[in-house]
C-alpha cells in the first residue's frame, strides 16, 4: 500500500527550504502559495527521502473565491504519496507556474485544465485547447459558465 | 517571483481549420433533418413486370446488409454484443462489420455524438454509396439523451445526417437493435428499382 505522508511534517520541511510558501497543511495535504509553487515542486522532486518522481494527477477546482490546482504526487522509490495544492485568487487571469519541466505527465493535464477552467500555466511549451475546439468561447467547467 | 509573461500557444493552421469546420457545421445544423419516413404510408403501386425483379433485389439487399462499425460510446458495447454468439446478427447476414464506409450500407450510430466528432460523422456518411440507411441507437443518438443541454453534445444525430430508424434505450437491449434491423429490412423491401 502506498503510504500517505503526513502533510504537516512535509510542510515543516518545505518551510525550512522555501520560507513563507506554505499556506496550510493537513493530514495528507500541503497548500502552498502559487508564487512559490515551482520551487516547492522542485524541492519535493529532488530531495532524497522525498523523491516525488511520479505525478499521478493534476486537476483544478473552482471555489468561487479562488481556483485551487491540485497535484497528486507519488514516490516510486519510497512508496509514499502526497497531495499538493495551490490557490489562485485572481478570477480574471489566473496564472500558475507549469511543472512540465519536472513531470512530463503535466503536459496534457495542464492543457486540459486550461481548456476547461481557463487557468494559464506559465512555462508550458504548447498551451492550447485539448478537448474543445479552438474558437470555443469560454471555459465550461467554471462555476459561472452558462 | 512575479509572473509577468505567459505564453498561450499561437494557433496553427490545423487547429484553425478544424475549428472552422466544427463551427460552420454547428451553424448549419440548427434544425433536425426530416426523417425519410414516406415508406411507412405509401401504397405499393408497382407494375407487374418490375415486381419480381424488385422483390428479388430487395430481398437480396436486405438479407446481406453490411453494417458500418460506428460505435461512439457505451451503446457500442451493446452493438458488439449483438454481434456475438448469443444475439447473433450473423443469422441476418450482417456478420461482417465493415470499417470502411465505401463498403458499407448501414450505419449504426451508437453512442453520444459531440460537436468535435460531428464533421467526421458527416464525412463518413457522405462516403457511403447509395443506397444507404442509418440507425440511431440509444438515447444520446436520438436526441442527445441525458447530455442534451451540454456545451459539447449534438442534440441528436439527425441534426447531421438523416436517420431511418431510431432505437430507444440507454442502452437498448440487443433484441431492440435486432428489431430495428428487421424494420430496416421492411423498409428495404418496400423500395423499388424505379426510384433507387
Keywords:
heterodimer, A: 146 residues, alpha/beta, 6-stranded mixed β-sheet, two-stranded parallel ribbon, B: 196 residues
What is this structure's SSE topology?
The complex is a heterodimer of chains A (146) and B (196).
Chain A: E1 3-4, H1 7-17, E2 22-25, E3 29-33, H2 37-46, E4 54-63, E5 66-75, E6 80-88, E7 95-97, H3 106-117, E8 120-122
Parallel strand pairs in A: 1-6, 3-6, 7-8
Antiparallel strand pairs in A: 2-3, 4-5, 5-6
Chain B: H1 13-28, H2 48-62, E1 67-71, H3 75-83, E2 106-110, H4 118-127, E3 133-137, H5 139-143, E4 165-167, H6 174-189
Parallel strand pairs in B: 1-2, 2-3, 3-4
Helix pairs in contact in B: 2-6, 3-6
Description:
The complex is a heterodimer of chains A (146) and B (196). Chain A has 146 residues and is α/β, with parallel strands linked by helices. Chain A has a domain at 3-93: Beta Polymerase, domain 2 (2-Layer Sandwich). Chain A is 23% helix and 32% strand. Chain A contains three helices and eight strands; from the N terminus they run E-H-E-E-H-E-E-E-E-H-E. In chain A, a hairpin with a 2-residue loop joins strand 4 (54-63) and strand 5 (66-75). The longest helix of chain A is centred in the last third of the chain and has 12 residues, at 106-117. Chain A is globular and about 45 Å long. Chain B is of the alpha/beta class. Chain B has a domain at 67-180: Rossmann fold, CATH 3.40.50.12280. Helix content of chain B is 36%, strand content 9%. Chain B is globular and about 70 Å long. The N and C termini of chain B lie far apart (72 Å). The relative contact order of chain B is 0.18. The model of chain B has no long low-confidence stretch (mean pLDDT 84).
